[in-house]
């Protein structure tokens, strides 16, 4: 069928939903993007964006101006529904599936026979079948025959989303073979990477495995950084030299682990299989504890001053993005602010302002600071020289200043 005659309804216009909706619109689909925020809906309908991602502003403007992308507060009838809503965890590190449940309930009244419903939100094993398919069955559909349901987890890197949406391989798993076939055919229309067919539970665990593997590797690096500090050894030199071994590839440590994926997804495995996920749990605990280790270093340095000025460089969870979700940098700065250790000079070059922090330019922060706390390796920070910071106490959690 001609793409221009097919309608896609994307639920959730965040870091995954908006790029996906915009990309599909520029590929010729008629796309309705749905979000619970009136501000987000209005922004997109003006052809503007509410998140930072390279080239996304151009893509959204083009998609809206073409008439192929519109934003709405409520779902409409469509041929394909893509659910791309948050999946945080709640108290006790249990997955919060309320957003997926609400999104599925919202689209269930608009679904008709022949439709495809895709869950792209990263989810605990069993969510596609036990939540999405179950709600649609309760609506009265013969799911798997009359309406097709599949899971296709996003696998993109912030800062490269528009490239990786098209170029990366995708794992697509349906609740039955018919659903898999329909979903694979859809993704093959716009993905240049391989579209790999499996079942829904496998697709769910693949995504959780990818992020848990990264989390375990980062936990090793973070433990190593603390060992090196205790021994007064340069962490970055140890890693650089160890990585000269042909079968060793140690990642870089940091102030913790942030973002919606790596800092969250391992808990979905732990919650589902607590008796078998001891290493995954321990890695998560190591990474969750790293911000407090950084705070202790700042506290010790601050004791040298009557009223120290502390430059806090970076709030985002990773370099060169504005995404603050689960950011250890944010947690550290919030704790410093709450403890009133000294005057904080907070610099985040990817944000114009912040609801709780007063932001200052980089030069102001460096000029006035007694202590420079480097939390994120944003591009402007990577240009800082050791000479520029020569008279400062530097706590570099990212190995930027050598």
Task: Describe what you observe in this structure.
By secondary structure, the chain is of the alpha/beta class. It folds into two domains: 3-207, NAD(P)-binding Rossmann-like Domain (Rossmann fold), CATH 3.40.50.720; 233-396, Rossmann fold (3-Layer(aba) Sandwich). Helices cover 41% and strands 14% of the residues. The protein is built from 14 helices and 14 strands. The chain is globular, with a radius of gyration of 23 Å. The mean pLDDT is 95.
Give me a quick take on this structure.
With 402 residues, the chain is an alpha/beta fold. It has helices at 17-26, 38-45, 56-65, 98-108, 127-139, 161-167, 177-187, 200-231, 235-242, 265-272, 278-302, 328-339, 362-368, 379-382, and strands spanning 7-11, 30-34, 69-72, 80-83, 89-90, 94-95, 116-119, 148-151, 170-174, 195-199, 309-313, 343-347, 371-374, 393-396.
Annotation keywords:
four-stranded parallel β-sheet, eight-stranded mixed β-sheet, Rossmann fold, 14 strands, 2 domains, 402 residues, alpha/beta, 14 helices
């Amino acid at each position: 069928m001609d793409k221009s005659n097919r309608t896609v309804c994307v639920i959730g216009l965040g870091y995954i939903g908006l790029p996906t909706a915009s990309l599909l619109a520029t590929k010729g689909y008629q796309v309705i993007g749905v979000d619970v925020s009136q501000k987000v809906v209005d922004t997109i309908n003006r052809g503007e964006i509410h998140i930072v991602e390279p080239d996304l502003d151009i893509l959204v403007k083009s998609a809206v101006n073409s008439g192929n992308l519109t934003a709405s507060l409520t779902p409409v009838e469509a041929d394909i529904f893509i659910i791309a809503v948050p999946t945080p965890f709640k108290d006790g590190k249990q997955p919060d599936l309320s957003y997926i449940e609400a999104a599925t309930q919202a689209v269930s009244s608009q679904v008709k026979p022949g439709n495809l419903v895709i869950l792209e939100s990263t989810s605990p094993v069993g969510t596609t079948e036990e939540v999405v398919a179950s709600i649609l069955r309760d609506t009265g559909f013969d799911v798997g025959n009359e309406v097709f349901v599949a899971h296709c987890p996003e696998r993109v890197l912030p800062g490269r989303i528009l490239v990786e949406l098209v170029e990366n391989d995708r794992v697509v798993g349906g609740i039955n073979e018919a659903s898999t076939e329909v979903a694979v055919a859809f993704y093959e229309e716009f993905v240049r990477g391989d579209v790999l067919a499996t079942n829904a539970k496998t697709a769910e665990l693949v995504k959780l495995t990818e992020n848990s593997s990264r989390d375990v590797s980062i936990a090793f690096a973070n433990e190593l950084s603390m060992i090196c500090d205790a021994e007064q050894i340069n962490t970055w030199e140890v890693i650089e030299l160890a990585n000269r071994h042909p079968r060793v590839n140690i990642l870089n440590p940091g102030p913790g682990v942030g973002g919606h994926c790596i800092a969250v997804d391992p808990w979905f495995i732990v919650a589902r299989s607590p008796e078998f996920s001891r290493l995954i749990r321990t890695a998560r605990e190591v990474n969750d504890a790293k911000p407090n280790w950084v705070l202790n270093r700042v506290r010790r340095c601050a004791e040298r001053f009557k009223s120290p000025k502390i430059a806090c460089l970076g709030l985002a969870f990773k370099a060169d993005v504005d995404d603050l979700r689960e950011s250890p940098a944010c947690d550290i700065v919030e704790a410093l602010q709450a403890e009133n250790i000294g005057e904080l000079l907070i610099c985040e070059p990817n944000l114009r302002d912040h609801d709780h922090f007063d932001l200052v330019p980089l030069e102001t922060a460096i000029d006035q600071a007694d202590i420079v706390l480097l939390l994120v390796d944003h591009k402007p920070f990577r240009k800082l020289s050791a000479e520029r910071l020569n008279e400062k106490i530097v706590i570099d959690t990212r190995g930027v200043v050598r």
